[in-house]
Write a structure and sequence with these properties.
With 330 residues, the protein is of the alpha/beta class. It has 2 domains: 184 residues, D-Maltodextrin-Binding Protein, domain 2 (3-Layer(aba) Sandwich); 135 residues, Bacterial extracellular solute-binding protein, family 7 (D-Maltodextrin-Binding Protein, domain 2), CATH 3.40.190. 45% of the residues lie in helices and 20% in strands. Strands 1, 2, 3, 4, 5, 6, 7, 8 and 9 form a 9-stranded mixed beta sheet that branches. Bound molecules: 3-deoxy-alpha-D-manno-oct-2-ulopyranosonic acid. 3-deoxy-alpha-D-manno-oct-2-ulopyranosonic acid (KDO) binds next to strand 3.
C-alpha cells in the first residue's frame, strides 16, 4: 500500500493547523456549528440516530447540520475536509483511515471482526487507544464512537448461482474507491471496480457493474433491490464506521460540553447499532418478497480464500505487530 503524495502533505498541514488553533477558547456564547457530511441516506439508521439522538443531546451548545447523500463532500474526501478545517464531522470508514495510516487496514480486513459487540470491544480496548491518538495528533480528527454498518453481503444483478469465490471470476464488483476496499473485492475472487456510493444504483441499472456489496439495510435504503436479482450472504466484512469530529472543535469545548457530546455520540451509536441489527434480521424476508434470491454460499470457501489473501498481502505488512492476534483475542 502506498501513501499518496496528497495524503502525506495533508498530514503535515493538519498538525500545523491544529497547533495554530491552540488557545481558541471555549465556545461560550455562540453555538458550535457541526456540519456533518456522509454518503449515507437520511433513512440509514446511523443518520436516524444522529439526527434524533445526537443532535438534540448537544443542542444547548451545538447545532448539528447534517448533509446526507454526499451532498456536501464527495465520499472519501471528508477526513481531508475536517483536517483542513472545512468540515466538523463525518462517518468515516477504516478503509478511508487506511489511506492516511496504512495500519488501519487490519480493521477493514475481511472476516476479522466477528460481530457488532466485537467491534465495540476492539474500539474500547487499550490496544486501540494509540490508533485513536495517532489520528488526533496527525490528522486533527477525533474518533468519537464506533458505528455498526452491518455484515456486507454480495448483491448481484445477474442470477448466476454463487457458491465459491471461483464463481465470482470476472464479475465486475463495485467497491468504494480506496485500496483497502479494492483489495477486499479481489480477495473475494471478483474484479473490483471503484465507484462512489451515490453512483451505484445507476451502475447496477445500466450494467456498468455486475454487483455491489453492502449490508442488507443499505441494500434496502439505497433501493438496490430494485435493480438486482440476488443477495448472496457471504458476510465477508462485519463493517464499521467511526463517528468523527474535528479535534480543533473538540479542544475549544468546555469539559462539560465534551462529556455531553461524547455521551451523545455513544448513545447514538448504540441506538443505531441495535436498529441496524434488528433490520438485518428482518430484511431477508423483505428481499424474497421483492422476488430476489437470498441464500448462503459455501462460507468456509470464502473465509479461507479471503483470510489467506490478506495474510500474504502487502496490506498485512503494514499491520502493527500482533494486531490481528489481539483483535482475535478480544
Ligand atoms: C459503500 O460505499 O458501499 C459504503 O457502505 C461504505 C461505508 O464505509 C459507508 O461510507 C457507506 O457506504 C455510506 O455511509 C453509505 O451507506
Amino acid at each position: 500500500m502506498r501513501f499518496s503524495p496528497v495524503r502525506r502533505t495533508l498530514l503535515t498541514t493538519a498538525v500545523a493547523a491544529s497547533v495554530a488553533s491552540v488557545g481558541g477558547g471555549a465556545f461560550a456564547q455562540n453555538k458550535i456549528k457541526l456540519r456533518l457530511s456522509s454518503p449515507a441516506s437520511a433513512t440509514d439508521q446511523r443518520a436516524v440516530a444522529l439526527t434524533s439522538i445526537f443532535g438534540p443531546a448537544v443542542a444547548s451548545f451545538a447545532d448539528l447540520d447534517p448533509h446526507w447523500n454526499a451532498s456536501l463532500f464527495k465520499q472519501g474526501t471528508e477526513l481531508e475536509a475536517i483536517s483542513r478545517g472545512n468540515l466538523e464531522m463525518s462517518i468515516a470508514s477504516a478503509q478511508e483511515l487506511a489511506e492516511f495510516f496504512p495500519e488501519f487496514s487490519v480493521f477493514a480486513a475481511g472476516y476479522v471482526h466477528r460481530d457488532a459487540a466485537h467491534q465495540v470491544k476492539v474500539f474500547n480496548s487499550d490496544f486501540f487507544q494509540p490508533y485513536k491518538k495517532k489520528v488526533e495528533d496527525k490528522l486533527g480528527v477525533k474518533l468519537l464512537s464506533v458505528m455498526y454498518l452491518g455484515r456486507r453481503q454480495l448483491n448481484l444483478r445477474t442470477d448466476k448461482q454463487i457458491n465459491t469465490p471461483a464463481d465470482l471470476a470476472g464479475l465486475k464488483l463495485r467497491m468504494p474507491g480506496s485500496e483497502a476496499w479494492l483489495f477486499l473485492g479481489r480477495a473475494l475472487g471478483a474484479n473490483p471496480v471503484p465507484m462512489a456510493f451515490t453512483e451505484v444504483y445507476t451502475g447496477l441499472q445500466t450494467g456498468a457493474i455486475d454487483a455491489q456489496d453492502n449490508p442488507l439495510p443499505t441494500v434496502r435504503d439505497a433501493k438496490f433491490f430494485e435493480v438486482t436479482k440476488q443477495v448472496v450472504l457471504t458476510s465477508h466484512l462485519v463493517d464499521l464506521n467511526y463517528l468523527t469530529l474535528s479535534k480543533r472543535v473538540w479542544d475549544r469545548m468546555t469539559p462539560a460540553q465534551q462529556a455531553t457530546l461524547q455521551k451523545a455520540a455513544n448513545d447514538a451509536a448504540e441506538s443505531g447499532r441495535q436498529k441496524q441489527l434488528a433490520l438485518e434480521g428482518e430484511l431477508e424476508a423483505f428481499f424474497k418478497e421483492k422476488g430476489l434470491k437470498v441464500y448462503t454460499p459455501n462460507l468456509d470457501a470464502f473465509r479461507k480464500q479471503v483470510q489467506e489473501a490478506y495474510l500474504k498481502s502487502d496490506l498485512a505488512k503494514n499491520w502493527e505487530k500482533g494486531a490481528l492476534e489481539r483483535i482475535n483475542a478480544l
